[in-house]
């Protein structure tokens, strides 16, 4: 009870009422986020316009939702609050959150207005009495034209994800919609970035707005690390599969520029046995809802999406964002990377680029004020090693199914002549042989050349295995800091720090190999021995013939746990290309939705 009291007081200190505090407690909110701490007191106490700049996943919905609910007259049935959001998914998400926030306030109704659903049914819901309307610009403008909605008494207008709405070409719709609202309303603009288009809309529709900035304008989340991989364009899809296979617990959003590429990559992944699906504007609302439900339930672990469709994704546990193709607008990268590293967790944003696209990396670095680390597409041997350690970890965590007990005497009889060590070798040899036979002739996917100003080449370095990982509280940044301190090395001597759940890998300049092994020869952390070994997977690149290359475990079901028979039916399609072309890059914006 004491913990609840403290948590409730943190929100009470912002000026929120008892009904919302009860809802906050039910939802398990413990501490207001920075944007909530800054915005809520201002919006509660002042009748003012506001521009709030904060990254995706920082709690912006509650930042404007709590004050809006407090200020609405729930005894009146007229529409007093209008929230505009760029996509159907985000519209529904905001509506559901507002309903949760206001569940103890009798008579307050929030209605979602979006395309792909019955417009007449939505009009009926508003007519019954909707104090708050959450809408996409296109559907709202349609309903205004048909005189199905009256927003002439709106007191509060929220423009959520303003930069994305403008990027999608909704400026004229927003202008037309706001022309039907009172001039003396309060306008609250929330955005992740502040391009000139957002600045212009603030100047045009707002009066002396207060500006709140969480972090720096257009910067990325501090919890997200950024890395890039240089490949030839024809190897882009093969590289994607290698990255997935090197991260067995991956739960990711993969971004493509167009609907066509999104659908094609998703179909290829599904055909190669991955738990994948596409999310883009050509799906029906029912299809989109089913995809998002499966993703939230982790039945889908690789969601391939366009930038527009992904605006409705609100999942805190995304481990990786993979930029299969970089966006045309640099600011859009900030939105993409904001899908991971949420709720205080660390995340990784990966970029697959060709040599001709390297200049974009530097442009993005200037915008997000963070540096990228250049990394190598893992080799087949590295993937084999990761998968085997992951398999061992899964077995160690597996619960014993005692329905196997009646069969144990017969199993013991078959295996009684083998020692424990022999049994372990035999068991893992079954899996290793499958992995090794598949990967042994695979070629290096890393493009030669590239930008030497970023990261390290794997040449001239030694790669190590270390038996600590995420379960020990490490992410790649904290492990790198730990290694720097323990080994007394600078950042330039350490590279390719890859953290898994129960183990990790890292590289050092080869001249420090003896130091690394000596330091960790008898090293303990919290009473447990920390084991460091030289990884048998090569630190540098291998040569070889340029064969069509595998890389993907057809039939693997990562979300269902360890299934040795299903997860190793190998694909033959890593060489399948999904190339970009200048003609595709020039497609109209409608194909990106």
UniProtKB/TrEMBL annotation:
GO terms for cellular component: cytosol. Residues 9-37 form the DEAD-box RNA helicase Q domain. GO terms for molecular function: ATP binding; hydrolase activity; nucleic acid binding; RNA helicase activity. InterPro entries: DbpA/CsdA_RNA-bd_dom (IPR005580), DEAD/DEAH_box_helicase_dom (IPR011545), DEAD/DEAH_RhlB (IPR044742), DEAD_box_RNA_helicase (IPR050079), Helicase_ATP-bd (IPR014001), Helicase_C-like (IPR001650), Nucleotide-bd_a/b_plait_sf (IPR012677), P-loop_NTPase (IPR027417). Residues 41-212 form the Helicase ATP-binding domain. Residues 534-593 are annotated as: Disordered. Residues 223-383 form the Helicase C-terminal domain. Residues 571-583 have a biased composition (Basic and acidic residues). Belongs to the DEAD box helicase family. This is ATP-dependent RNA helicase DeaD. It comes from Aquimarina spongiae.
